[in-house]
Amino acid sequence: MSTEAYAIKFIKISEIQLRTQLARSTIYYHIKLGVLPNPIKLGGRASAWLEHEINQVLAARIAGYSDNAIMSLVQQLEKDRPNILPKFFH
């Protein structure tokens, strides 16, 4: 899956809570289950998520994908993270 079409934008857990109406503890439970991607450590105690990853997971949820299909999507999204960097950084 190409990430070139995505502008890199980080969102905090409060934004995920607004979009999903899930409690903070439920979000972390969904991460543990593998149906939401892991956050990216920004340094110190700061973490955030890539907006395009959250958008894709929510779109899959809306489309009625099974939890197993969403787990596969999350694994692929996380696997593709290194490919976000422009080619001149490689």
Topology summary:
Blueprint: E1 10-11, H1 13-20, H2 24-33, E2 40-43, E3 46-50, H3 51-62, H4 67-79
Antiparallel strand pairs: 1-3, 2-3
Helix pairs in contact: 3-4
Structure description:
The chain is α+β, with helices and mostly antiparallel strands and about 90 residues long. The protein is about 50% helix and about 10% strand. The protein contains four helices and three strands; from the N terminus they run E-H-H-E-E-H-H. It has a three-stranded antiparallel sheet. The chain is globular, with a radius of gyration of 13 Å.
Contiguous runs where pLDDT drops below 50 for at least 5 residues: none
Instruction: List how many beta strands DSSP finds.
Output: 3
How many domain modules? 1
Oligomer: single chain
Mean pLDDT over the residues: 91
The biggest beta sheet, please?
A: 3 strands, antiparallel
Query: Which shape, going by the Cα principal axes?
Result: globular
Ends apart, CA distance between termini? 18 Å
Which percent range describes the beta-strand content?
5-15%
Instruction: Work out the helicity level.
Output: 40-55%
Order of helices and strands: EHHEEHH
Structural class: alpha+beta
Number of alpha- plus pi-helical segments: 4
* C-alpha-based Rg, rounded: 13 Å
Q: Enumerate the strands of the largest sheet in spatial order, edge to edge or round the barrel.
A: 1-3-2
